[in-house]
Amino acid sequence: xxxxxxxxxxxxxxxxxxxxxxxxxxxxxxxxxxxxxxxxxxxxxxxxxxxxxxxxxxxxxxxxxxxxxxxxxxxxxxxxxxxxxxxxxxxxxxxxxxxxxxxxxxxxxxxxxxxxxxxxxxxxxxxxxxxxxxxxxxxxxxxxxxxxxxxxxxxxxxxxxxxxxxxxxxxxxxxxxxxxxxxxxxxxxxxxxxxxxxxxxxxxxxxxxxxxxxxxxxxxxxxxxxxxxxxxxxxxxxxxxxxxxxxxxxxxxxxxxxxxxxxxxxxxxxxxxxxxxxxxxxxxxxxxxxxxxxxxxxxxxxxxxxxxxxxxxxxxxxxxxxxxxxxxxxxxxxxxxxxxxxxxxxxxxxxxxxxxxxxx
Length: 360
What we know:
Layout: E1 6-7, H1 18-27, H2 39-52, E2 57-61, H3 64-75, E3 80-85, H4 89-92, H5 97-102, E4 105-109, H6 118-121, E5 135-142, H7 153-165, E6 169-174, H8 177-184, E7 199-203, E8 213-217, H9 220-223, H10 226-232, H11 241-251, H12 255-274, E9 281-282, E10 290-294, H13 299-304, E11 307-308, E12 310-313, E13 318-322, H14 329-342
Helix pairs in contact: 1-11, 2-11, 8-12, 12-14
């Protein structure tokens, strides 16, 4: 029997949290009305209002890409544009879906840390009112960012105020919002609605769910047509109760925080364990569940025989190691031991020629 390889490539590769699997099994009893007309969906949507405020309107979708793209479609007309970091998932890892499906343009900003700032965004507003250029109408930020960095509530509020003063909206890709909130010791609302975010893509699949994301509007007028946008975007689940059951379990008793904290702690442990291995250099601060490290090129091929992981920057063999809610101390120790052993492996010509991959 082939051994199951452990993954440090993405938190998408993890399994389902037992409490969420239990909720799915419970939802499987009997029949329920389709398309969200069931009591489970009603309860789950009420939990979103409890957490984000009574004006919050949540809509469940299957995929993170769909959550982001349909959020932008709700905010933007085809002649308008979203300003985002060049490293943002919507810019690099969604295969042009924002442009193709939402019909909008993306205006990428080069950053060192994956974060937008007012100073970096301001020059793009010079195109406002100029009919030959796409019109900036939205800022899109990621929390935590693709580089593992965090926006504080104050930083988000600064961006939100700037956006609103200039007639723009603020969208947040919150596929790892739970990890950010856990790391900063705040609740989900503090990093979203209370900081001025207009629309949130709230992640579930990276934090213990089997599948499912939520698009959350904090201004009811923005949500009025979204049920049609979701349907046209092929994201209206017929058996909605199975999405709802997972979110109810994730939000109950702050399971989202427990899962995210476990993943964050595993990443901190991993960084501490591998930082002194010869040839390994931690390249970015470890704030959430991502560890970026330059590793010797000779280690790549040998390490990939035992563990999944991605090379983020091929030019300097910078790897991205992701941990999950179910990453154990034994997993970290085993990975570190394998990396240490691989660092002793003689250089081979093909060791650094694996395809780069870092999708989500």
